[in-house]
Amino acid sequence: MKIKQKKMQPATLRELYKMAKSRAPKKAWNWMNNGTERELTLGQNVESFKKYKMNSRVLRDVSKINTQVNFLGVKLNFPLIISPVGYSTQFHKYGELELARGAYLQNTFLTLSPVSSIRIDDIIKKVPKSNIIYQFYALNPRKWVVNEIKKVTKLKVKAICVGTDVPVKSVKYQTREDRYDARKHGKKTNPRPPLQKMSSLNWNDIIWLRKITKLPIIIKGIMNAEDAKKSFKCGANAIWVSNHGGRSLDSGIASIDVLKEIRKAVRNKIIIFDGGIRTGSDILKAISLGANIASIGRPSLCGLIVNGSKGVNKTFELFKEEFISTMGLCGCKSINEINHKIIKNY
Fold it and tell me: Which of 136, 164, 158, 15 is closest to 81 using CA atoms?
């Protein structure tokens, strides 16, 4: 009799990454993990976390730790969502649909990229209770934007996100040298948006967007205090501190290194953060320095590669386990107790 082998689950986030790398097509893996030019910003995103040391506090009774947080009207299990990632069917047959299913299992958010392989209509049909943030890269032609807003409002998305950090195409050495075009891999149902209009995006577009929708607006790609303050003046409800995962400007600043300055500038406004988060302790560092919500892109794709929606769910479980452990070891019983006093910058 043939014994059915149980599929091995990753025991750690490190093992998840190794599993994903071994299973993904090499050129698709390179596309996911590369950055612009010499990949200096990409490297800094991860390396800069090492500068921030956590100062543990003891004898604080951490027998009960509450990681829940409210975000856009949803009570999250812990403050982690999925960043927008395009062309996901190159990693799994059902791409963004499985990311949405994984997010649903965790009661978290999927941010749907404008270059998603799968239409939002198809995702909502299969996962009707999805918490989706719908992203734009361009806000022209106006008629197209208005129609998109009407559609996603009816589909009950939770917010609109405007990606601002790639107004022009960046040069990624590895993808070019691989002669790899992600658009040609994996099944697609989503028509290509008017990306040729990205370079003309400006603050007046945000003011116009605020006038035509009541949905919360998130400005993604904020990397300095001046732009953070201007985002809220133009009608944003939240900002997203991000350098596009090191895939836009090279020799840029690590996302984590601007977070404290931006928090000081906008005080009690909502800040989402991504860029280099690879462990649960990274999440705690980001929140300590001013983020309300952390977000992951590449790690969520690793889960997708390993086991579809179940792999995405497992990725979040592993992050949560590490996050709870780090909170307890720092003497924090709830998200409200995480603050800048925990962090020492060396």
Answer: 158
